Amino acid sequence: MANKDQGGMPRRDFLLTAAAGAAALSLGGLGLAKSAQASHIKKPPLPYAENALEPYISARTIKYHYGKHHLGYVKKTNKAIKGTPYEKMDLVQIIRATAGKRDEAHIFNNAAQVWNHTFYWLSMRPGGGGKPMGELAGRINQDFGSYQNFAQALLKTSKGRFGSGWGWLVLMDGKLRVISTPNAETPIAYNVKPLLTLDVWEHAYYLDYQNRRGDYLKNIIKHLINWEFANKNLLE
Ligand code: MN
After folding, report:
1. Cα separation of 213 and 131, whole Å?
2. Hey, what domains does the chain have and what are their CATH numbers?
3. How far is the CA of 152 from the centre of ligand 1 (A)?
4. How far apart are CA 166 and CA 158, in angstroms?
5. How far is the CA of 6 from the centre of ligand 1 (A)?
6. Which helix (H) or strand (E) is 98 found in, with range?
7. Per the count of CB atoms within 10 A, which of 1, 103, 104, 191 is most buried?
8. Three-state DSSP state, 157
9. Non-local CB neighbours of 220 within 8 Å, separated by 6+ positions
């Protein structure tokens, strides 16, 4: 059974040691919080061409990552929810309803991976990276001390994730934080607001970088982060 804290949310203590109550957060923005239809979990369109992130992420990587891995999670989610009450839920509802439930791990893992990958594609754009603009520029200085501190924390935390998982910039209890999650785990399940994510599963970088996870991450941070998307998520 799931561990539940206030608001019916599964426990998120593993994300951080300090876990105070968080206000309900908006789930808009990705079109993933809309009402559900039968066999409804879809792979959203890639927001740019397969070769748009070159030379930092190759078209070949995107072809497999988006075309095979992401699609695989979509298909497995639809198959797993067929004929269950989850069929009537939207993606975020499915993720929240299955988080922390051992018997539903197969559904959670695939559904969360669908959501995380959609968020990952949007977290990057050609001509992105470098210092943030808008609201986030000030918030990053306020909560991390400087952009350099933030960039270093994002690199270190994401690179240091043991095994497969994700690095995140999140808004948690009113403060920006860098966290990482294992496997399919996602802040969206725990009432923590994600602003951007970096996929650190090997399939995200192995064709281009082999074992050099740090180089892959440095290139995203320097050249690809979509700050407009992160700002939009912050203000939503
Ligand atoms: Mn991936």
Report:
1. 21
2. 12-18+126-235 (3.55.40.20)
3. 22
4. 7
5. 31
6. helix 91-98
7. 191
8. helix
9. 56, 57, 124, 129, 198
